[in-house]
Structure formats: structure tokens, C-alpha cells
Amino acid sequence: MRICALSIILTALALGLPAVSVGTVDLEIDSFFAPPVAYRGEPIGGQILLQIRNTGPDDITSFFFVGFYISTDEHITISDQLLIGGRESVAGLAAGEEVNVPLWWGAYVPSDYPLGPAFLGVIVDEFNVIPEDDETNNTASSAVDVIDEVPVQTQSWGSIKMIFR
Ligand SMILES: [Ca+2]
Ligand SMILES: [Ca+2]
Hints:
The chain has 1 helix and 10 strands. By secondary structure, the chain is mainly β. The strands form 3 sheets. It has a 5-stranded mixed sheet, with no helix packed on it. Strands 1-3-6 form a 3-stranded antiparallel sheet, with no helix packed on it. Strand 9 and strand 10 (160-164) form a beta hairpin.
């Protein structure tokens, strides 16, 4: 793509035409928050917050995907384990615009994922359909402890017993 754009400019210069500006974009992660503890098989999506930005200078006009993963190390790749229900799409992003990418509240760590320390993370433009100035700033991760027990609190009002998970 860049070679193509460059050749257009060189051609324009050779022809004495004004060089057109080369369109470029960059998606980057503004902020990523994930909880320090995840219960296997329990919804976690509503506790994961992601804000991304297109630093421009061009608009992104096509769809791209954002994948939310769990990983054994802090480097998140598409080889890691996608959360169940852990993929969202974004319908483009104007130059300079920031947007929250809400993850489906019901997304969860698979119930057979190994217990213990791990990392929750994200890949923006997961399948790399958007050519960017910088393809190395599209991931973020946060340490998490994967556990099995679900805390149970019980409270009784007379004969009514409520169980909160
Ligand atoms: Ca980027
Ligand atoms: Ca990309």
C-alpha cells in the first residue's frame, strides 16, 4: 500500500503535479482495564473496559475486529485463547476520534482454562485488515488470577432465603 502511495507521489512530482497527501491511520489503545480475578465459566465481559483511538490523520471507514483473550503471558496474540463471546466489531473510526469498545457482558473465560496466574488482554484490528503506521501498539494486557470458586453470600428475611453469586 505504501509503495503504491509513494509511487503515486513520485509520479505526481515527475509530472509536475502537486503531491497529494498520503493517507495513513494508526489505531492505538487509550486505556484497558480488566479485573484481577476471573471465575472460570462466569461472565466477566462487563468488567473489561477498552478505549481506543485513531490518531489519524485519515479516517478509518471500514469495519475491524477487536478480540479479548486470555493468555499464559502478557503478550497477546491470536494464538491465545479467545474469551467465549470475546469478539466485537467496530464500524470505522474518524481521525482523532476515541471510542469505547464495550465487550459483551456475558463473555467469559472457558470453564476448562487452567487455574492460576494468567493475563487478560486485547488485540485491536485482530485480523489486521487496517494497514496502519504502527502495527505494534494494538495490544494490551493485565494480570489476572483464574479461579474456580464462586463466592456465595446468603441472606435471610423471614422465610425468604436469597442466594447471591
Ligand atoms: Ca496501531
Ligand atoms: Ca492493522
